[in-house]
């Protein structure tokens, strides 16, 4: 009899864990925090630089995916990089899911190590972050709350695991005095071949040049 009870308890435990595992996997997918490992970049200036004038690429990255895209945009445009960094590091998964959800719910966004005080030297500003809970990662909201773009052209970009949600709508609402143009999302960066990623960025930059 005791053996049967033990088997039943094990079965019930497994059944109870299934929804938890599914939820954890779904959140991880939506956050898209898998770190990327890429070979060194090699973009010949004569062949692959796009002249947008003086370019600034601002980004926040948690798992490395947004940093990867930001670096390649910088390389292709000859721009400068500014990384958004939080004063306190985020915990690893799954704790970050709870923390970031609370930040979004309460509007209590993280303090940053620094920001950009003056955008006047730049002709165009690319701003990117990962998608968290179907909107922009909270450190980006911290950055936007202190930024005044003063009429500059601002181009948002996101990384996600399959659904960027309201990222661009929310970005446009929070980007003060910015001329926000159509952005783009890069899905599953860590699973995307380098050449494919470069082609997508190049095609996007070509389109921006024509606008």
Produce a short descriptive summary.
With 211 residues, the protein is of the alpha/beta class. The protein has 7 helices and 7 strands. 44% of the residues lie in helices and 16% in strands.
Features:
7 helices, 211 residues, single chain, Rossmann fold, globular, alpha/beta, 16% strand, 7 strands
Could you describe the 3D structure shown?
Helices cover 44% and strands 16% of the residues. Helix 3 (65-77) crosses helix 7. With 211 residues, the chain is an alpha/beta fold. The protein has helices at residues 2-31, 45-48, 65-77, 95-106, 138-146, 167-174, 194-210; strands spanning 55-59, 80-83, 124-132, 135-136, 153-160, 179-180, 184-187. The chain starts with a helix and ends with a helix. Strands 1, 2, 3, 4, 5, 6 and 7 form a seven-stranded mixed sheet that branches. The longest helix has 30 residues, at 2-31.
- Structural class label: alpha/beta
Low-confidence stretches: 17-26, 43-48
* CATH architectural label: 3-Layer(aba) Sandwich
Main beta-sheet annotation: 7 strands, mixed
Radius of gyration: 20 Å
| Morphology | globular
CATH superfamily: Flavodoxin domain
Number of helices: 7
Cα separation of the termini: 75 Å
Question: What is the oligomer described by this structure?
Answer: single chain
């Amino acid at each position: 009899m005791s053996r049967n009870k033990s088997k039943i308890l094990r079965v019930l435990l497994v059944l109870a864990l299934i929804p938890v595992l599914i939820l954890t996997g779904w959140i991880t997918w939506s956050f898209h925090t898998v770190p990327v490992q890429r070979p060194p970049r090699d973009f010949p200036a004569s062949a692959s630089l796009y002249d947008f004038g003086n370019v600034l690429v601002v980004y926040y990255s948690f798992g490395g995916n947004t940093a990867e895209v930001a670096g390649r945009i910088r390389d292709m445009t000859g721009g400068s990089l500014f990384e958004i960094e939080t004063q306190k590091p985020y915990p690893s998964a799954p704790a970050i899911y709870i923390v970031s959800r609370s930040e979004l719910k309460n509007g209590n966004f993280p303090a940053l190590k620094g920001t950009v005080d003056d955008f006047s030297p730049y002709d165009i500003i690319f701003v990117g972050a990962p998608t968290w809970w179907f909107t922009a990662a909270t450190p980006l909201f911290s950055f936007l709350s202190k930024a005044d773009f003063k009429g500059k052209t601002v181009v948002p970009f996101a990384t996600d695991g399959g659904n960027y949600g309201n990222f661009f709508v929310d970005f446009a609402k929070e980007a003060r005095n910015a001329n926000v143009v159509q952005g783009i999302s890069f899905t599953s960066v860590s699973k995307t071949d380098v050449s494919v990623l470069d082609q997508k960025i190049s095609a996007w930059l070509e389109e921006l040049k024509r606008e």
